[in-house]
Predict the 3D structure of the following.
Amino acid sequence: MSSEAARQFAALSDDLTAFRHYMTAERGMAKNTILAYGRDLDRFAGWLAEGGLEDYLAPTLRELANYLGRLRDERLAPPSVARHLVALKMFYRFLRLEERTAQGTVELLSSPGLWERIPQVLSPENVEKLLAGPQEGDRFYLRDRALLETLYATGSRASEVVGLRLEDVYLDSAFLKCLGKGNKQRVVPLGRPAVAALRAYLGEQRPGLTKAAGEVPWVFVSRGGRVLTREMLWVIVKKYVRRAGLNSRVSPHTLRHSFATHLLSGGADLRTVQELLGHANIRTTQMYTHVDRDRLRSVHRKFHPRG
């Protein structure tokens, strides 16, 4: 395996692990379905390791056709080939949700009715419940509070938050620098609650967590100074989702969706929200205007006498 293929395989394996966790924790899919999709996607990963894909985040039509041809050459029955294709579609929908892949790739693999849904958004009241979840009795109370505050205050992706370095945080000026897709950097403001939570965590708890490890660049760490992974972040958020009694499908990305929707509801212009989210294309940001209109219709139906 070439060094580039090995790098692609390692990155794909990480995304597949996150996808399995998503299918279990977010989608609540049946165990047998998850196992079947997992086997199908492991076959896809094996094909990548053999050099079948140049870049799994941007597969070409020819590459995908070659993969389907490979499955037929292995004498898989048509229903099995179809299931492999569905597994790939589901996986790339997940990558789109995580903003890991380009719009063109998703359209290439998509079909009408497959996992197309408006993102879930929390009300401001439910966001407050979630942010109030970490309590002083919790083992990593200050870290977890700062983590949740940062997710909602900045609308950052989970990968951006776990990848934050100390040099990216400017508490006195109330902003941080995020390294997003394509290594594009953007500046995102921090509100007062997030600044206070980060200051408390960095000053009171983080030194103890990193004591044995020495100099550690990451902002959010576990015991021993190890950087948090995306999967660990999901587990932390899920803990406080359950405590707040919220929908079990709420995830770190839900806070990003809520951040964008609440800004637009409050009167922010679409271009500003696009910049804060780090979207390359404003059409991606426009998704949140649909979410807000859907919420308004719901309120109208509930409270208008002739709704």
Notes: Confidence is low (pLDDT under 50) at residues 109-117. The two ends are 62 Å apart (CA to CA). The first strand starts at residue 169 and ends at 170. DSSP finds 14 helices and three strands in the chain.
